[in-house]
Design goal:
Blueprint (H helix, E strand, L loop, with lengths): L13 H55 L31 E4 L30 E6 L33 E10 L2 E10 L4 E9 L1 E10 L9 E3 L17 E11 L44 E9 L6
Antiparallel strand pairs: 1-2, 2-3, 3-4, 4-5, 6-7, 6-8, 8-9
């Protein structure tokens, strides 16, 4: 019988240990890099979905207001023997009663003036965040057929308040949209007026709105089709051209929204590829204002542009 072989356990050499450590370090580095890429991709996808949801919500609110612009309830109760007619939204009205109005590179500095006499100026001058604009629509409410003292809920402003049928020509529902800074973050706001109590309020719609641009479609031949797209600047919105507001039959709204810090995936080395166009790169109409293009800061945020067009269905002639 042969004697059992004896096995001797030997240690690793220094070179073998160093090679093993390097291999383990490479695996750890690759794992961490893969985790960082996955986390960054998740943040970007999540932020992109949030921007889509925010834009869809904001556009729905603005669209509801646009569809309400100039509305008048022909079945509403009479006051002093007359219903309010389209002339209320005409240029000779005693109040600022155009169904749609706007301001270029501005924000709403004096909300109470949104329903005041025509000479009043509710907007600041050249103080829009990133040259953002203001959009204002006005309309009449509707009263419950069973209780004339209460609105029926079919007409609401941009803050969701029910607007009653007017008791006077100044009792217009108002939905005004603009951008302001709150706690360091730009947000799209709705300033509304409810004639039921005369309360003016400002409500936040969505945050992270870096640019809000508006172009108005003018009908110049009474066929209800936009013939020109113009911005609300003095070149056409002068004191002697206020009747142009009643020729507006459509509005194009564009926004640039931004996500939280760290949600972006880096910038292009070509500077022009980082520019964003709120209304679309090829949509400028008759305007040359610089607000049509936004060059964002290199701050690691994801940004997206969204734009849509609304037509006004309550024509004023």
């Amino acid at each position: 019988m042969k004697p059992a072989l004896k096995l001797y356990q030997q240690g690793l050499t220094l070179i073998e240990l160093l090679v093993a450590m390097v291999l383990m370090l490479l695996v750890a580095i690759a794992t961490v890099a893969l985790f960082n890429v996955s986390s960054s991709s998740y943040r970007t996808v999540d932020a992109g979905q949030e921007l889509q949801d925010n834009a869809r919500f904001a556009m729905e609110i603005i669209g509801q207001a646009a569809r309400s612009a100039g509305f008048q309830d022909r079945t509403g109760p009479t006051v002093d023997g007359q219903n309010y007619t389209d002339s209320t939204f005409g240029p000779v009205a005693p109040v600022k009663a155009w169904r749609v109005e706007g301001a270029n590179n501005a924000k709403i500095d004096q909300p109470a003036q949104l329903k005041a006499d025509i000479p009043a100026a509710p907007y600041g001058s050249n103080n829009g965040y990133n040259q953002s604009d203001v959009l204002v629509v006005r309309f009449f409410g509707a009263t419950s057929p069973t209780d004339p003292s209460k609105p029926d809920g079919s007409m609401i402003d941009c803050s969701g308040r029910r607007i009653p049928y007017p008791s006077g020509s100044a009792d217009l529902g108002i939905s005004a949209f603009s951008v302001d800074i709150v706690a360091g973050e730009p947000e799209l706001q709705c300033t509304s007026y409810n004639p039921d109590g005369g309360a003016i309020s400002t409500t936040s719609i969505i945050r992270g709105v870096e640019s809000f641009q508006v172009m108005f479609g003018l009908d110049t031949n009474a066929d209800d089709i936009p013939d020109r797209w113009v911005s609300a600047d003095p070149s056409w919105n002068s004191t002697t051209a206020l009747t142009n507001w009643n020729n507006v039959v459509a509005v194009r709204v564009g926004m640039v929204l931004r996500g939280p810090p760290g949600s972006g995936q880096g910038r292009s080395a070509t500077a022009s590829e980082n520019d964003l166009y709120p209304l679309g790169k090829d949509f400028v109409g008759d305007s040359t204002e610089s607000g049509m293009k936004l060059t964002p800061a290199d701050d690691g945020r994801l940004r997206r542009s969204f734009a849509t067009t609304y037509t006004f269905r309550n024509a004023v002639r």
